[in-house]
Amino acid sequence: MGDIRTIVVVGSGTMGNGIAHVFAQYGLTVRLNDLSDELLKRALGTITSNLDRQVKKGTLTEDQKRETLSRIMPTTRLVEACADADLVVEAATENETVKMELFRTLDTSTPAHCILASNTSSISITALAAVTKRPDRVIGMHFMNPVPVMKLVEVIRGLSTSQDTFELVRSTAQRLEKVAVEVNDYPGFVSNRVLLPMLNEAMYAVMEGVATPEAIDTVMKLGMNHPMGPLQLADFIGLDVCLSIMEVLYNGFGDSKYRPCPLLKKMVAAGHLGRKSGRGFYDYSSPSPAR
Ligand code: NAD
Fold first, then answer.
1. Which of 106, 196, 249, 262 has its CA 20 to 30 A from that of 69?
2. Percentage with pLDDT > 90 across the chain
3. Is 285 a catalytic residue?
């Protein structure tokens, strides 16, 4: 297996544009794919303003910014973009049917040596690998949001992922100055399996009247040195996303310790999704969030 030079990033949303940004910043050729020119234009706008911020901070020069942008080619033509890819990072919408279909297409459109990675937060890497004829070259590459800032990449081995594939993806993550952590494919991997039950437990504490959201967040911030309280963080992630991850854990393990908090379900049903809907455990309709 050779060196990685050309990357295809599928999906140019929150994660995809950040992933394209870091690969291009570290000298790789990137084809950024999405369903419309409009979405790609928006993604390039986001990448440009994030690069501008780096220039302002003095961590990147104007020339480096220009070079980074020149390495990113936006395209809606996935099959053509894949013709000489060494690595594909799939960061499309978190939907199993969409990802299965994409992995079938990627398997038939990329060269035999190409590694197919998914940035999924919760879908089984082993299941995605099983729809391809190269399960040894399918792997999880789970970046954190915001990608240009966060150091961690969970590198997730599916049941059939080969050692060569793992090593190459780990060294690629290191090339981006990220810290790669090896994880095996089980529901929620490590990040969401450890984080979400804590957020869910904080919601049970609110539901049972143990304390107010402010009090719980204060305990975790001042007592445990967490930069954000669990309820503030849940609002930030989105309560619908929190619920769907808890459901993945609950269904995946069949263990009642992962049951989603009824208050979380009720809030999602009411459309109180956190920061993005203006209301969750806190109210975001005024400039300083209050409960
Ligand atoms: P998003 O909704 O912001 O972006 C998804 C993009 O994929 C959209 O632009 C959509 O048009 C595009 N897309 C959908 N179907 C496509 C297809 N068939 N071909 C090409 N593009 C397609 O979502 P996101 O938050 O960037 O999440 C992307 C992935 O990253 C998901 O698997 C998610 O679980 C994972 N993830 C998200 C976060 C986060 O904090 N947002 C963190 C880690 C991992």
1. 106
2. 96
3. no
For residue 12, how far is its CA from the centre of ligand 1 (angstroms)? 7
- Pocket of ligand 1 contains residue 64 by CB under 6 Å: no
**Taking 70 as the threshold, does the pLDDT of residue 154 lie above it?**
yes
Q: Are residues 110 and 77 in the same domain?
A: yes
Q: Please tell me whether residues 200 and 86 are part of one structural domain.
A: no
121 noted as active-site residue: yes
> Which range marks the domain in which residue 271 is found?
192-277
For CA atoms 116, 162, 182, 97, the dihedral sign is positive
36 lines ligand 1 (CB under 6 A): no
- pLDDT tens-digit profile of 61-115? 999 999 999 999 999 999 999 999 999 999 999 889 999 999 999 999 999 999 9
Q: What CATH number is attached to the domain comprising 272? A: 1.10.1040.10
- The CATH number of the domain where 168 resides is what? 3.40.50.720
Q: How far apart, in whole angstroms, are the C-alpha atoms of residue 271 and residue 240?
A: 9
* Beta carbon of 91 within 6 Å of any ligand 1 atom: yes
